[in-house]
Amino acid sequence: MSAVVKLDVELGVTHKVVAGGSSQNHLEVQGNGQVAESHTESDCEETRFLEPLCPIHTLILDWTPVNFIDSVGAKAIKLVIKEYAAVDVCVFIAGCSRTLLAELRTLQFFTGVATPEMVFPTIHDAVLHCRRRTAPPTIPAIQ
Prior knowledge:
Layout: E1 3-8, E2 13-19, E3 26-31, E4 34-35, E5 39-40, H1 45-49, E6 58-62, H2 71-86, E7 90-94, H3 98-106, E8 119-120, H4 123-134
Parallel strand pairs: 6-7, 7-8
Antiparallel strand pairs: 1-2, 2-3, 3-4, 3-5
């Protein structure tokens, strides 16, 4: 009998896969201390361990409490924006002060994946933008 331990870094959940001794080579999957039903090895590992929890399409960062950002912080935020864009998740910044916007411009933050169009004065404005962007188009009624 052999065991493989997988760690989902994003969720912090350990998945333990234990091979049984049956002729069909079934696997028992344990996640969060719960044992799931048996699956054959033909089950795709990606679909088993990388199922999306919910369809996230947008992330809004509340920067109202942010007073300062340095070059390392700006690069880290740009990297986060780039990584989320790679999986089709849009990132917006809300509540950014004028002084912080000036610092971001000085640091040349708004190049590449980060654009000034992703910054909104309030969270409410960002939410309204996201709702308009993801809403299905309305077709006027024909009379």
